[in-house]
Structures are given as C-alpha cells and as structure tokens.
Amino acid sequence: MSLEAVVAGVSHEQPVRRELTHRAAVAEVFVTSLAARDGGYLAGAQLPRMHAYYGDHTGAPARLHDPLLVMETARQAAIALTHEFFGAPLDSAFLVRTFNGTGVPGAAWECTREPANLTLAVEVPRVHRRGDAVCGLDMILEISAPAGRLMTVDGSFSWTSPDRWSRLRGAFRQSLGRTPAVGPVVAAEPVPPGAVGRENRRNVIVGAPERAGAAVRCPLAVDPAHPFLFDHQLDHVPGSVLLEAARQSALTLLGAESGNPQLLSVASRFDRFVELDLATECRAEVAARGAGQVTVHCVIGQDATAAEIELTFLDGREPG
C-alpha cells in the first residue's frame, strides 16, 4: 500500500463487513475502506476483473467495466457510510428516491490484468431529518481509478426501522387490494440472451418486446433466485433489477445482436414499490440522438408508473 493511500485513508486490502453494505455474500462486497476527511468522506473499492453477472456482456462492453457495477459500488459505499458515520442501525431498510451515474469515457473503463482499485470521494450536500434524528441523505460520489475518472454518482435516499417498513409495505399492498404476504412471482419467459447483449440466459430479466409505435414494451422476467440481483430475500423488486430491466429493454429497442452499445450514463427516479406478484412492464423509447450518443427513456410500471430511467449509450450507428 502506498504512503499516499495510507494518508488519504483509502485501503484496498480487504472488503468491509458485508452487513455494512446489505450484502449476504462476502464475494459481492466491493467496498474496501471507509474514512472521514475534511468535511467529507472517502471510500476505497475494488472491481472484480470477472463477474458472473456484471461481466456477462457481448461485444465491446465485454472488455469494459460495467457502469452498473460502478453504480452498485457507489450504492454499497453510500449505505456503509450511513452506518459508519450517521448512526443508521444495521437493520435499517432503505428507500431510494433518485440514483444517477454520469460516466466519463476513457481508458479507465478498460478491464486490465490488474484489479481496478477505486477511490470514491464523497460529499453530503443535504441531511434529511425526522425531528432531531437523521433519517436520510443526499450524496455525491466522485469515482476514480488509477487510469482516470470513471463516473460521478449522486442519489437521495432515506432509511427506516423494520417495524415502520412493515407498516409502509402493508399499507402500500393494501392500497393495491393485496394482502401483506407476497404471492407467487409473476414473470415472463426471458428473451434469448443475445437479444440483450448477454451470454448467460440466467442474466436475462426481460421477456419478448412488443412494438408500440417508436417504442417497445418488455415484460419483466424476474427471478428471485438470482444469486446477485436477489443476494438476500426481498419483498419487492429492487432498484438494481429495475435498472437492468431498463438497460435490457433499451437494448431490444436498439438491437443488441447487431452491436451491443456501451452504456455510459444513467438517471433514475423511483416513485413507488414494484411488487413481485404483479406483472411489470418496461416501456423504452429513444429520447435523443446526437454527438455520438443515444439516450433511451424507460418507464417501468404496474398499472401506475413506478420508476423512470434514462440511459445514455455511445451510439455505434453510422451517421446518415
């Protein structure tokens, strides 16, 4: 470890305790250190050179670190920091309102023979309180690798007690005419992996798209036994699944089999829970195209809109 890293408070020697990141599997913990510094915070992290889910891509993205992996690392760091420095109990349940990642194109994204040791410089521009107690944060995480900057991730989230979570979930399901207990999972048949830029069928989470004018509509093919997306038991469809559903829906629209475009940036807003026992659909439509990029707007819903996600890809199409 370099003297500079010791002074900065960043270490890449071992993962932090898995409960700090709300992960059941130690192998899925990417954060390696946490520290307070000059009114802000620092985290260290290490990206795997190969990963059964984040490394399962075709084409150019197969040689690059996945932006959703970098965002997952930021999510883990954000949660861990709330436990370490803001007093959030370890059994807290988290609610995410917004979660965005703006990538910086460059050599830092390339997977090399060396593990990618990341430094996350973290600012907290806003603290949310319930009475005198801290119950939520807005965070900005500037993420760099030795080869340069990777991404800026920002988000707004809050946490609550298990009892309050149960009441919140029960009231929401009652508003849908559902009992508190989640019923059998409703999931579509997954599309062939190549259609969404994947090699492993297990990592496909959308069903056959239907054209709707310039848009496509993809039913979700959620698998609660997926070892990463459902690392531990959940009573709803988590944000990580919704982000991947949006990406895969966008790829069916853009045509992944004729060239899997590189994802660069993500902007997302989560408005309500997505239930496992109700059919879920993602509608994807091109929102903008130009300057070598294409942005796809996705709406995920179950009768009502639950989340809106915009994804920007490097556009591999020839102009003209």
Helix/strand layout:
Elements: H1 3-8, E1 31-37, E2 40-47, H2 67-85, E3 93-103, E4 116-130, E5 133-145, E6 148-160, H3 162-175, E7 210-212, E8 215-219, H4 239-254, E9 263-270, E10 281-290, E11 293-302, E12 304-314
Antiparallel strand pairs: 1-2, 2-4, 3-6, 3-9, 4-5, 5-6, 7-8, 8-10, 9-12, 10-11, 11-12
Describe the structure.
With 320 residues, the protein is of the alpha+beta class. The chain folds into 2 domains: 1-160, Hotdog Thioesterase (Thiol Ester Dehydrase, Chain A), CATH 3.10.129.10; 162-320, Roll (Thiol Ester Dehydrase, Chain A), CATH 3.10.129.10. The protein has 4 helices and 12 strands, in the order αββαββββαββαββββ. It has a 12-stranded antiparallel sheet. The relative contact order is 0.13. The model is unreliable at 1-7 (pLDDT under 50).
Structural features:
single chain; 320 residues; alpha+beta; Thiol Ester Dehydrase, Chain A; twelve-stranded antiparallel beta sheet; 36% strand; globular
Brief rundown of the structure:
By secondary structure, the protein is of the alpha+beta class. It contains 4 helices and 12 strands.
Could you name the ranges where pLDDT drops below 50 across 5 or more consecutive residues? 1-7
Task: Name the CATH superfamily classification of the largest domain.
Answer: Hotdog Thioesterase
Along the chain, the helix and strand elements come as HEEHEEEEHEEHEEEE
Write down the oligomeric state.
single chain
**Beginning-to-end CA distance, first to last residue:** 51 Å
Tell me roughly what share of residues is in helical segments.
10-25%
Overall, the morphology is globular
Biggest sheet, strands in spatial order? 1-2-4-5-6-3-9-12-11-10-8-7
- The CATH topology annotation of the largest domain reads as Thiol Ester Dehydrase, Chain A
| Mean pLDDT rating | 93
What portion of the residues fall into strands of 2 or more residues?
A: 35-45%
Class by helix and strand content? alpha+beta
